[in-house]
């Protein structure tokens, strides 16, 4: 194969031992996974919010955001359940920064061993606050150093057709959201959901194993090339596909960002607020919509907007909670929206 060895990586056991999760942290994860599954299955009528920075960098700002979100979550827990996005891996259409797990300092050379230590430490600190976390499964080979920390996992729009990601989802202990493809196709995501809910044979750690299937694999609507897809017509279409394929625990999370939040082809972070409000109105008027749409995903950070990494240096980049990838809504707007939703449901 055409590669150059850089250095030997720590084993998953070494990664976990270096930054272990406490018994209390483990209880937070287990409780959150069960509650998230109950919401998706309709046994818990709260709405689920998966919210946080587009990318989890830098750790100091991420932890400040987590402290604020933990406090707010405790106040609203009777109405909504909140999971924090701590996204350490970033997919790219062509190329670019792949997230802190690959490059903890985006202005220096990639250092995956340091990135793993940086990210696990950050994630453990968030969970130890009592805030359950979510991430996207991009690099599945790194998963064993992180997966016991996660209460929810996304399979992204570019990965949902990939067999490895589908098998990976089938073997996870937490709910998995399968995003519709970048084209907007719901059918491709539905294929991923069906695959993830079934058993598969694969190789893991030198053994042939059989995954047991993930009954909480569900659909995430994130829009597509043709525009938004959170409207009742798309939700009803998804409902018909759920029935056709006998999907267990049929459920939808609306990703209020990405192609659902574009104005004239450009992402507007504040559109996420309108998307959530629109969906709440649809849930009030449409029984099918109400029964299937279980929550939302939003990109939110301490400051509104984003900064272009390419035009910055380590000295000039804003490290106080301004996204270096996609634009986010700021903290004040986040708090106002979550309190509004809790008052309406």
Q: Can you summarize this structure?
A:
With 345 residues, this protein is an alpha/beta fold. The chain contains ten helices and twelve strands.
Largest sheet: 8 strands, parallel, barrel
Helix content: 25-40%
Average pLDDT metric: 96
- Name of the top-level CATH class: Alpha Beta
Q: Give the helix/strand class.
A: alpha/beta
Q: What would you call the shape?
A: globular
- What is the topology, as strand order, of the major beta sheet? 1-2-3-4-5-8-9-12
- Domains, number: 1
CATH architecture: Alpha-Beta Barrel
**Portion in strands:** 15-25%
Total number of β-strand segments?
A: 12
Task: Give the end-to-end Cα distance, rounded to a whole number of Å.
Answer: 55 Å
Task: Give me the Rg, rounded.
Answer: 19 Å
Number of helices: 10
Poorly predicted runs are none
Q: Any idea what the CATH superfamily is called?
A: Aldolase class I
CATH topology: TIM Barrel
| SSE arrangement, N to C | HHEHEHEEHEHEEEHEEEHHEH
